[in-house]
Specification:
This is Protease I. With 174 residues, this protein is of the alpha/beta class. Helix content is 33%, strand content 24%.
Length: 174
């Protein structure tokens, strides 16, 4: 029996993409992983489609040593609340130094690019001019694919790739 894997899922306080949170979360939990949800605060977070989630922990209180993987959810709120969040960037940099699995879906891979983690890495992102430019400006090797895995970094393109993305994270954890 392997020990239970612990996955930190990060969502924006508002306008996270419901499917990109719920799909991977179900995949993670169905595989036996324990999911902890983090956001800017522990106040109820609200998804684009109306899903309300009470985060377990605020980003500022996260100790990445407690987790095997981190998954950052996309949606419009990721741009407002997560892209330039210095604490979150520091968390993903530390996770990378420790060789942990780091995932981001939709527009959330921009967090990884801004943290310097996508340099030379094959990655995907929700395809629009701004997000693709940010990845390329940070020396990422952008690919227009559902899911890209490059070492310990996993990126997903959009809500349609949510389950495939979740499965890629779980596969990388094994």
């Amino acid at each position: 029996m392997t020990e239970q894997k612990k996955i930190l899922m990060v969502i924006a306080q508002e306008n996270f993409r419901d499917e990109e949170f719920l799909g991977p979360k179900k995949v993670f939990e169905d595989s036996g992983a324990k999911v902890t949800v983090a956001s800017n605060t522990t106040k109820k977070a609200k998804g684009v489609l109306g899903k309300k989630v009470s985060p377990d922990i605020s980003i500022s209180d996260v100790n990445i040593d407690d987790y095997d993987a981190i998954s950052i959810t996309g949606g419009g709120g990721a741009k407002e609340y997560l892209w330039d969040n210095k604490e979150l960037q520091e968390i993903v940099r530390k996770a990378n130094e420790q060789g942990k699995i780091i995932g981001a879906i939709c527009i959330a891979p921009v967090v990884l690019a801004n943290a310097g983690l996508l340099e030379g890495k094959m990655s995907t992102v929700f395809k629009n001019e701004e997000t693709v430019k940010i990845l390329k400006d940070n020396a990422a090797k952008y690919r227009d694919k559902d899911v890209m895995v490059d070492g310990n970094i996993i990126t997903g393109r959009d809500p349609n790739a949510a389950n495939k993305y979740g499965q890629a994270v779980i596969k990388a954890l094994k």
